[in-house]
Amino acid sequence: xxxTNRTLIVQMLDKDMIDLIEKLTTTIIHIQKEIxxxxxxxxxxxxxxxxxxxxxxxxxxxxxxxxxxxxxHTNAQSILGHILEIQLMLEEQKxxxxxxxxxxxxxxxxxxxxxxxxxxxxxxDHGRGGGVCLYIRNYLKVTELKFGIEKQEGVEDKWVxxxxxxxxxxxxxxxxxxxxxxxxxxxxxxxxxxEVILRNKPIFIYGDFNDDLLKKENxxxxxxxxxxxxxxxxxxxxxxxxxxxxxxxVITNSKYMIRxxxxxxxxxxxxxxxxxxxxxxxxxxxxxxxxxxxxKNYFQETLxxxxxxxxxxxxxxxxxDNVSKQVEVLTNVFTSCVDMCAPVVTREVTRPPxxxxxxxxxxxxxxxxxxxxxxKNQRENTQLRETHKELKKKVNSMLTDSRRQYYKQEFKNAxxxxxxxxxxxNNMLFNRINSDTNxxxxxxxxxxxxxxxxFNEFFAEVGRKTFEKTQEELHNRMxxxxxxxxxxxxxxxxxxxPVDCNTVILVIKDLKETNAFGSDVWGCTNKSQLQRVQKLxxxxxxVAVGNVRKxxxxxxxxxxxxxxxxxxxxxxxxxxxxxx
Length: 580
Fold this sequence. Notes:
The protein is α+β, with helices and mostly antiparallel strands. The chain has 4 domains: 1-47, no CATH class; 66-279, 4-Layer Sandwich (Deoxyribonuclease I, Chain A), CATH 3.60.10; 289-434, no CATH class; 517-580, no CATH class. The chain contains 19 helices and 16 strands. A 6-stranded mixed β-sheet has the order 3-4-2-1-14-13, with no helix packed on it. A 6-stranded mixed β-sheet has the order 5-6-7-8-12-9, with helices on one face. Helix 6 links the parallel strand 7 (170-177) and strand 8 (203-208). The longest helix is centred in the last third of the chain and has 32 residues, at 382-413.
């Protein structure tokens, strides 16, 4: 009753009277703190049992130890007029963060009039018809975020960084866009979203954007798609007797953290509430599996003998002129034989081997990690922070030097063996590429399916547009007498010829065992490809020699390693092929 009367008075009085009431209220609250309880606590003591108070305290302690955050968005249409309903909703639903649009607060209205116990308030005021605020539990670590972007009329937004326990922090934003805001307001929203993305944290944006996503033409939907965000709400959030629209949204870049989301009815305004339950615990790395053929027990002679045992099946190729049947017979026989020699296996991908990490480096890494643990509990210890920085530099330096020495020794041991040299080069260069491509496996199944569909659609469109453009040019082009006539006899006369099993076996026996960069691929290379390979060889020589300056000429080091330049190797191999 006291809260209701105070709300009505605030709505009726002017600024001067509000300042006077504010001073009186501050004095009353000071007295209440001296006593040890507030007005709300006094009312609760009258209407509740002592055991209920103990249960409420234990519920708060359980919430502190929980891994989840409950975030709700509602459209209040005046906080002062619905402060009791908001307080009841916070207590009953045990909400951790409440985002409110259309607060209708003025800057001269103090937080005292909208204070709710155990919650801190963060607000951006506009007056009647706008404004946003966030009620956040007082045990959560909160940092207000500000961006150097000029405010746009028609949009109010508030951004905070929230950390629960020692889990990674997340960014929560509350945005309200006025129904009659200019089109340029979307440019401001886009700029703010881009600034938030640069923080490289999980982002959760709640708000009333007044742009119906159920309509085909909406600018906000395109903005969300271009910035690679996800919009969670899929049901109308504002339902009237004549319309239903989806204007209250939840936008995020970390959809995997949302364990539950639902639209619930609201008793405050004609907008529905949006509830989300977030799991803020850092997810474990998903297990990555790789499927490949195991060549451990593969031998060329074994494969040939298996093919010889299936000669009676391969002879079926000669008994039919159907190309599809011939290909099917050959494929089935060859696949079954290869499966016996080199079966397909699926294994878990572990970290790549790092033989250059010695025991000394491991001990230094352990010391660095222990200092880092101490630093988490003693963040103000500057000496410990400097020690941690020095240990980090030392570990990185030791890893770099040890890796360089390891590969230098490997190149010396493989001197004269071109196949082994290229194998070492591949391992040295592509470990970094493989570590980057493993990040793609963190995508969900839906994301991978969507990317595959977009990829296929892109190339399908390229082929169709190319064909249409070609046909259009051919149609518009007038044939000339000097145009050459392209014969089609080769294409028309092409027919596949049957091959006997002995020919297949001879081809398999003539296959080269090495995968080195040799003369078998020089025939399809050009000048630009040779230059690329030369750059790769120069890089490998710099790594093998070590301590080479950036602009130092690499030719002396190639002579030291007794490596031919790629152009000379190309000439040597071609001469060998011609005169051998």
